[in-house]
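Cross-check.
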Amino acid sequence: MLTQESTRYIREFVAPRVAPVLSLYLDVNPANPNNQGKAYLLRAREALEATQTPPEVRKKVLEALKRELPQARSRVFFATGGWMEVYDLQVDLPLVEGVEARWGEPYLTPILYVLDEYDRVGVVYLDREKWRMFEVYLGEIEELPGAFRAVPTQEWNQLTQDSPGRRYSQGGIHRAAANTDRFERRLDAWTHRFYKRLAGLLEQVMNERSIQRLVLVGQKAEAQVFKELLPRRLREQVLATLPSLPTPQAPAGEVLKLVEGVLEPLERERENRLLDELAERGVSGLDQTLELLQQGGLHLLVAPWNPQGRVYRAPDGWVGGSMEGAVAHGAGRIEDVELKQVLPELAEAYGTRLEFVRGPAEERLHKAFGGLAGLPRW
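Predicted model, tokenized:
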């Protein structure tokens, strides 16, 4: 799993590593028919031979590929003669014909695309006996056992006895016995305080782990009550409320299947809403979008998942869609570079959030917006 620690390692230690370094990105998905018979080995060998990677480095990487049958969808290598890092990812990468290899400066563009595309999603499982929390990221799931550890067992027991599902009969009618009214009000006040406490613990974990989205799993009434008691910022991050799984203490893999079934459609829907907003008040087209971006005028840059084409970079770092525009920014050597390579660099340099769209939204971005668009800061 590409954890926060490994992500930080890539950014802080791999990125500034002294060149030359081999960067190899490979589609190894067993479900891909193009990978039958370990065809990815042939693609990797051909891609490495097309670079200036030293034979000993090529040999080391290919041997590592042969040693074990990949269970991931993508595999990433960073290697030199005396050092190698390998990352298996359960997501697809924006690769041309399933492979990209570079020898020289560390090539991080595909990794940066993945980091920008996928949010960390927190899943709160409102189990009958004790709540659990998971983190879903890059197609993998990790349970966070310490999320609610500060809550004593006896308080979980009291919550179970006071759950909304127990206190409300069919149709939402409250138990009406007169001699229970005061007791019920006291329980409601305790439950309110308890949920607020859980919300505080949840917010702390989300901040610590940079979790951007939230899914609640549990009985509808209980999940809805908890959602309403969340701070506004957290409440706005809730993507969905899902019913509990029938399996008691459901394993993490089953929770992942449940959540992934709604995340993908919700993401595609969100991307189309974003394009609707671009149509109303955004800028579009390669040259206009790049120009406003480099003037510091965009707060959001929207790009296709697999940008095609090349751009020109002037000696002062300015990037444009034409040679003439680059020449206007000063004399010197003009670089011809891949668009997808410079987009993450530009977005980071100008403090602009980078958003990628896929599928129908990606096709719409190309046809209606010229392949690149953005939302102005003002």
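The chain has 14 helices and 16 strands. Residues 166-180 have pLDDT under 50 and may be disordered. Passed to J.P. for a second look.
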